[in-house]
Amino acid sequence: MKKQKFQATKINPKRFHPSQIRYLILIFPVALFMLLPLLYIFNHAFKPLEELFYYPPRFLVEQPTFANFTRLFKVTGTSGIPMSRYLFNSIIVTVLILIASVIISTMAGYALSKLNFKFKKVINEINTIALMFVGIAVVIPRYLIVEKLGLIDNFFVHVLPYLAVPVGLFLVKQFIDQIPNELIDACRVDGANDWQIYTKIILPLIKPAIATIVILSFQSVWNSADTSTTYINDDSLKTFAFYMNTLTTGATGVAGQGMAAAASLIMFLPNLIIFIVMQSKVMDTMAHSGIK
Amino acid sequence: MASLLLTQRKKKGVREKQPIAYLFVFPYLLMFAIFIVIPVFAAIFLSFTYFDTVRAPSLVGFSNYITILTNDDIFMQYVIPNTLKYALIVGPGGYILSFLLAWMLAQLPHKLRTVLALIIYSPSLTAGITMSVLWKVIFAGDNSGYLNSVLLNLGLIVEPIIWLQSKEFLLTIMIVVTLWSSMGVGFLAMLAGILNVNQDMYEAGYIDGIRNKFQEMIYITIPSIKPQMLFGAVMAIVGTFSASGIGVALSGSNPTPQYAGQLIVNHIEYYGFFKYEMGYAAALSVILLLIVYAFSRFAFRLFGSKNE
Lengths: 292, 308
Fold this sequence. Notes:
The complex is a heterodimer.
Chain A: H1 2-8, H2 21-45, H3 49-52, H4 67-74, H5 83-114, H6 120-130, H7 139-148, H8 166-177, H9 181-189, H10 194-205, H11 207-222, H12 226-231, H13 240-250, H14 254-286
Helix pairs in contact in A: 2-14, 4-14, 5-8, 5-11, 5-13, 6-8, 8-11, 11-14, 13-14
Chain B: H1 2-12, H2 21-46, E1 49-50, E2 58-59, H3 63-71, H4 73-105, H5 110-121, H6 132-138, H7 146-153, H8 170-180, H9 185-195, H10 199-207, H11 213-224, H12 226-242, H13 246-251, H14 264-274, H15 278-303
Antiparallel strand pairs in B: 1-2
């Protein structure tokens, strides 16, 4: 009898069982609260102008149209720079950061997990402390350093500050820890050098961790307008996230809201799609995320 | 032969040093130093100076800290109470909520769980500030705002409320919005952790006299996933403070209306970028970093395995 009860309520069950309904009752309102704003943005973005003017406002779109998106693409900011330019900047910046941060953190992760050197322990400990680092707290000294390095209004200021991500390195290193040392020793015996071990053995084995850094970096970069507002004065070098922010602060009024919703959707969807595609890999990495 | 040597060395624990490792860590360490370590030390140094960005910084000892603690009325009256209220609700509140959600989701079958987890996680993809457009429309101050229109229709209010400029509501709205987007990496880590707890542990627990799901959670699940709990806690703390600039994004002004949503982060930016008192702003930064560090130490005390 007792055994049966345990089976019915176990963790990670294979199929649905009535005993799970109580959890659904609790989760459902939360999920609804999480979902509503997103549904709202989705509906708002596809509303034609007259529906945006409805009073009282209606939640669902009745006659969906792409009008907000076409207006968004046609409108140019006060500086006369077309939206496509901002989008282009964002894509270049994001791609550069993803490639560079994956290379940098997997290389460091390999060394900090599998190689033996004097400062290994210290660096790992410092990185664990750096998990607590809140970038927003040091905006001012960071600004002064960027200025000293002559990076103000330089395209690379979008990229460089995002390359060292303590959480990314931490997750990669934890993941590499799972790879048996015997495997690496065996490769060494076969005459492989460290670079070969890194490219041929480590990288293929840690794809889930790589997917996770990609997602984390993508989120922070794609959504961030901070670099553009803080370090860039030249409008042609700013990014899409910045442009979005100007839309939301500048273009008030109902038509502006429709465009802003369309722009938010363009911001949000790539995040969502990438996450859905990679979610099983992320969960795989997260299983090793613990700080011991 | 070589492999024999290797295993022998390993047994003795004297594997030779591999200096090539420095090449592998160098790019990371360089970026880490420039954009994380040096800014932190620069903040500490500047916090002991007066610096207006025009003339070189001049040392002033502890006077910035003394001013903050004794003479900054706005800091003591608004910034600290706001920050504490915000951080205590969003931090521990959001953390406990994300653990409970993860735990309940783990009791559901795979497909259903994946869909619900995705819904709960997806707001964190919006990273708060860029989505402030959404909240601006929902909380718009005229009667076209969603919330106002709903409340007017229900007859709960007679006049539209200017939510985002209001002294009473701004901080609450900030807390709701941040909680909405706070089920992020930490939530996923705890979910993955719970799903990976060895099933035999539960079976053994029931034989040893665990009687209900609550006991199961307290005596088996949480102790088994302590490392993930700690990671989740650190992520919750960092996320809470990183998102705390949201008051300015929502209300559109720094300082926020009547300082209703003024948090330390906004106070730093106000002194740094509007008043150009870099030394003073740096001292505020150091205080913020110390607060974050203190919160994290507490989390380590709760869940860490190392004794300190």
